[in-house]
Amino acid sequence: MKQQTLGALLVLGLGFSAVAQADYFRDDFNWGINGNIWFARVGDNGSPFGCTFTPNMITPSSHGITLVLNQGQCSELQSRNSYRYVRVQGSLKTGNTPGTVASIFTYTSWWDEPGRAWQEIDIEFLPSRGNVVHTNVIYQPHDGDYQSWEQDIDLTPYGLNIQQNLLTIGFEWGEQQIRWFVYDAGGFEQTIRTVYKATGSGPLAPDQIPAYAWPVDHAKIMINHWHGDNSEEAGYFPGHYSGEAAWAYYDFIEYIPH
Predict the structure, then answer these.
(1) Three-state DSSP state, 119
(2) CA distances from 252 to 42, 80, 215 (A)
(3) Bridge-partner residues for 119, per DSSP?
């Protein structure tokens, strides 16, 4: 998310979580949420979010969960533990409602630990932008300037459509690089973007992130589905929302320690 004001808004109401680095998990969400792994967020983030995170907007089934939203209500899950240098992947499918966002991401900030910078790695699907995945790395020191390194990746060359296919996607976060990947229509893993931690003090290449902004702190694994409030900020991200109900289905989320 590009807007600087989200630095304070995205994190409102997020609580402390325990640090963990081992303990692989894959959650298929069989008949609901595993309370040892997740908790459902309650609260709102302010503008440009146009809805309040509400646990009853999470619909369980025999396999997978659906994060539904309507005008004013949406949903989010956060991991109870925090992790660093991980592979995170999941399988999901969304509807086609403009002005909404469905995501898989890692997140931490000063709300987790005083003085900590906001650090986030994103996978986001925005129907307003078409058949693309929005990838991003976000950095902001407490009371400092917001920075982001975002790129939209077209899914069509991989034979995928987020509204038509159950799409498996993820990222690997390491000490020197972050790599996003999808499994294409043939089931093969394909790298779609890689960014690298810059070394030295020279000019940055397009695929580099300054060393000071590299995510280094343990972060929560999160998924959410929300809509914008049609403010000026929301015009850029996530686009105009007309009030329709929407859904995002998550088949599984998997955490693999490095």
Answers:
(1) strand
(2) 22, 17, 25
(3) 108, 139
Closest CA to 253 of 136, 88, 65, 107: 88
Question: In sequence order, what are the residues at sequence separation of 6 or more whose Cβ sits closer than 8 angstroms to the Cβ of residue 38?
Answer: 27, 77, 78, 79, 80
Domain boundaries, the chain: 6-257
Tokens encoding 18: 């325990």
Residue that is written with structure tokens 């989200």 in the block? 6
Q: Taking a C-beta distance cutoff of 8 angstroms, is the pair 72, 244 a contact?
A: no
pTM (predicted TM-score): 0.92
User: Dihedral through CA 147, CA 149, CA 155, CA 160, nearest 10?
Assistant: -70
Q: What is the H or E stretch that residue 7 is in? A: helix 6-9
d(CA 14, CA 25): 22
- CATH number listed for the domain at residues 6-257: 2.60.120.200
Nearest to 108 by CA among 235, 14, 4, 32: 14
**Side-chain-side CA neighbours of residue 139 (13 Å):** 12
- 197-216 pLDDT per residue, tens: 998 878 999 999 999 999 99
Per-residue pLDDT tens over the stretch 136-156: 999 999 999 999 999 999 999
Tokens of 230: 């049609």
Nearest to residue 220, comparing CAs of 13, 2, 64, 18? 18
Query: Residue 248 and residue 59: Cα distance in Å, rounded?
Result: 10
User: Which tokens go with 182?
Assistant: 């999808």
Give the integer Cα–Cα distance in Å for 151 and 70.
28
